[in-house]
Amino acid sequence: MTDDDLLDELLGDARSEIDSIDDQILNLLERRARVVARVGEVKKANNLPVFHPAREEDLIYNRRREAAKLALSPEMVEDIFRTIMRSSRIKQTKTMAQKCVMPGAKVLVVGGAGAMGRLIHGWFSAAGYDVCILESDDWGMVEEKAAGVDLAILSVPIHNTGEVAERLAPHLAQDAILADVTSTKSEPMERMLGAHPGPVLGLHPMFGPTTDSLDKQIVVVSPGRDPEGCQWVVEQLAAWGAVTVAASAREHDEVMDVVQGLRHFATFAFGQFLSKRKISLQRTLEFSSPIYRLELDMVGRLFAQDPTLYADIIFSTPERLELLRGYVESLEDNINMLKEGDVGTFMEEFAKVAEWFGPFSDQAIRESSYLIEKMIERF
Questions:
Q1: What does pLDDT average to in each consecutive run of 10 residues of the chain (379 residues)?
Q2: Pairing with 99, which of 68, 122, 223, 368 sits 20 to 30 Å away (CA)?
Q3: d(CA 224, CA 7)
Q4: What phi and psi, each to the nearest 5 degrees, are found at residue 222?
Q5: Quick check: 376 and 290 in contact, CB under 8 A?
Q6: How far apart, in Å, do the first and last CA atoms of the chain sit?
Q7: How far apart are CA 365 and CA 291, in angstroms?
Q8: Beta partners for 221?
Q9: How does strand 200-205 pair with strand 218-225?
Q10: CB atoms < 10 A from the CB of 132, how many?
Q11: Domain locations in the chain as residue ranges
C-alpha cells in the first residue's frame, strides 16, 4: 500500500465518521424540533409569550461554560445555539399565529391591499379573526364594512391618516378600537382622538412588510384612550412573538426623529453624494472592508425602495425637519476644520463624542464585529 493509499484510507475513515456524527446531529435537531412543537402548543393553550429572555440567556451562559470545559470555542457554540433557538422561536411563532386572544372579534384593515396592510390582514386572518379590507374605492360600502367591527386599523400613508380616521370614525361603534400603524404618532393620535370617542391605540411596527415572522420584532405601543379596552390587541401581538414597547405619542415621535428621520436622511445624503460624484460602487467594493460593505448595503437598501415611503417619514413633521436642518448645519460647522486641515480640533471633537458614547461603544464593537463575521461567512 502506497502512502497515498494509506492517506486516502485514513481520510476515508475519518470522513465516514464525520458523516455519521452529522447524521446524529440532524436526528437530534429533529427530535428537539418535536419537543419545541409541544412547548409551542402549551404556550398557545396558556397564552404565554414565545420569547423568554431570561431562559434563553441562561441557556446560552450554560452552553458557553460547557463549551469551555470541552475545549470548544464558546463563541462558536453560542452562535450555533442562538441559531437553533431562533429557529425554535419561529416554529413556535407559527403555532402561535393561530392563537386568537379575542375569539369572534371582527377586524377592519383600512389600506389592507397595501404591503403593510396585507401583512396585518394575514396575521389576523391566520389567527381566526373575521377580517375585511377597506380601500379608497370602497367608501361607498363603508357602513357595511364597518358594521360590528371591534378593531379598525389604519394602514395608510402618514399624510392621509388623520383624514381617513375622521371619515371612518362616524361608522364605528363607540366601543370599537381605532388604531393606526404610522411611523409618527402625535398628529395622527390627536386626529383619531378627536374623531372617535371610543378606545384609541397607536401602533408602530418597527419593521417592513417583507417580515415573515414577528419573532422578537418590536412594535411601539402608544396609548390613546381606554388602555384596558385596547389591551387584547397588545396581548395578541405578544402572542405572535412581538416585543411591545410602550411610549407616549410625543416620546415616540422624538425618538423616531433620530431613529428614522435622521438616519434615513443621512443615508439619503450619503447616496446622493456618491451619485453626484459618479463613484464606481463596484470598484469600491473590490477594495472594501466588511464594515464599508455593510454601510453601503444600507444605502443601497434605501434606494431600492419606494421614495414615497421615505418622503413621508423624512418630511412628516416640522419638528423632524428642524432636526434635519440642525444636522446639515452641524456638517457645515466642520468646513473650516477641513479647509484648514485642523487635526487638533478633529481630535478634540472625537474625544468629546467618544466620552458621550461611553460604554455603548464597547457594545457597538461587539455587535458590529458579529455582523462583520456573518458577512465574511456569507459573502
A1: 67 86 92 86 74 80 91 89 84 69 95 92 92 93 95 94 96 97 94 97 91 85 96 92 93 96 97 96 89 92 92 92 96 92 95 95 88 76
A2: 223
A3: 73
A4: -110, 115
A5: yes
A6: 42
A7: 11
A8: 203, 246
A9: antiparallel
A10: 17
A11: 3-96, 106-247, 252-378
Query: Which of 197, 193, 177 lies closest to 185, judged by CA?
Result: 193
Residue 194, by phi and psi: left (phi above 0), alpha (psi -120 to 50) or beta?
Answer: alpha
Look up residue 317 and give its DSSP letter: -
Single-letter amino acid code for the residue at 57: E
d(Cα 371, Cα 290) in Å, to the nearest integer?
Answer: 9
Q: Which CATH architecture has domain 3-96?
A: Up-down Bundle (1.20)
pTM: 0.75
Q: What is the CATH number of domain 106-247?
A: 3.40.50.720
Q: What is the DSSP string of 88-134?
A: HHHHHHHHHTT--SSTT-EEEEETTTSHHHHHHHHHHHHTT-EEEEE
Distances (CA, A) of 80 to 15, 183, 310: 22, 35, 36
